[in-house]
Automatic annotation (TrEMBL):
InterPro entries: MoCF_Sase_C (IPR005302), MOCOS_middle (IPR005303), Pyrv_Knase-like_insert_dom_sf (IPR011037). Residues 99-263 form the MOSC domain. One of its GO terms (molecular function) is molybdenum ion binding. It comes from the Bacteria. This is MOSC N-terminal beta barrel domain-containing protein.
Length: 264
């Protein structure tokens, strides 16, 4: 344990929920405990439901590229030359019109600068996984590589310097949290993240990988490390760690190379 030196290897935000990621060198913490720029925007239908991969497979073929500084957004339909450039802040009506035409029903883009639109509003902090974990999972699927797995599971913080599933140390029994620090930022690890059926699909085509969930559940159970709290697995379709942060962490920054330390 003392020889392990986990550190931040990669940082990702997903500015528009369900669309493509932006890789960062550093991210800042909001008062809510979420990281700035993550799931800040989301697409909604007329019934106030998210337009996401769970309910609409067309989301997978929608490519997005966002400059976080200028808010320049490029949208493209996968496999075509159909691209359109917008300013995400100033041209929301035009964006909504373009997306409505793509989905073939009216949609609206909404913004939440304080919390964003996380799946887990109780633990809205960044999700954490290790590079070794992604590499291990990719070995379970002959047709997939580590990058394929990375895109499917969409974690915010990827740590290196540790073995596969080391991040399972960052949660405990259901009534407890695990405190740890990434440099000066103090986290509370809450639980292993429950996954949905969307991860069984190719993130860019929507094509379903045969027996993805069945294989994952079987292998996750078989490879569960001795340090993992087995009681937290009512099922084994879980990966990465959900976190929360206190108000005291607001404004602090996480950077590539920052070391992760458990707090006794």
């Amino acid at each position: 344990m003392s020889s392990l030196k986990p550190y931040v290897a990669r940082l990702f935000v997903y500015p528009i929920k369900s669309l493509d990621r932006v890789e960062c060198d550093r991210v800042a913490i909001l008062k809510s405990g979420a990281i700035k720029g993550d799931r800040t925007w989301a697409i909604f239908d007329e019934n106030d439901n998210f337009v996401n991969g769970k309910g609409n497979k067309k989301i997978h073929a929608l490519r997005s590229e966002l400059n976080l500084e200028t808010k320049t957004l490029i949208l493209q339909i996968q496999g075509t030359n159909q691209t359109k450039t917008f300013n995400l802040v100033k041209q929301q009506e035009a964006i909504c019109n373009w997306l409505s035409a793509y989905f073939d029903f009216p949609v609206e883009i909404r913004q939440n600068l304080d919390l964003g639109f996380p799946d887990d509003t109780v633990s809205p902090g960044p999700t954490i996984v290790s590079t070794a974990t992604l590499e291990e999972i990719s070995s379970w699927y002959p047709q997939l590589n580590t990058e394929d797995i990375r895109r499917r599971f969409r974690a915010n913080i990827e740590i290196a310097g540790v073995p596969a599933f080391w991040e399972d140390r960052l949660f405990d029994n259901a009534d407890m949290t695990v405190k740890f620090q990434v440099k000066e930022v103090e986290f509370m690890g809450v639980n292993p993240c429950q996954r949905c059926i969307v991860v069984a699909r190719d993130s860019q085509t929507g094509e379903v990988y045969p027996q993805f969930q069945k294989t994952f559940v079987q292998k996750r159970k078989e490879t569960l490390p001795e340090w993992t709290k087995r009681s937290r697995f009512n099922h084994f379709f879980r990966l990465a760690v959900n976190t929360k942060l206190s108000l005291t962490e607001a404004g602090k920054v996480i950077e590539i190379g920052d070391q992760l330390d458990l707090i006794n």
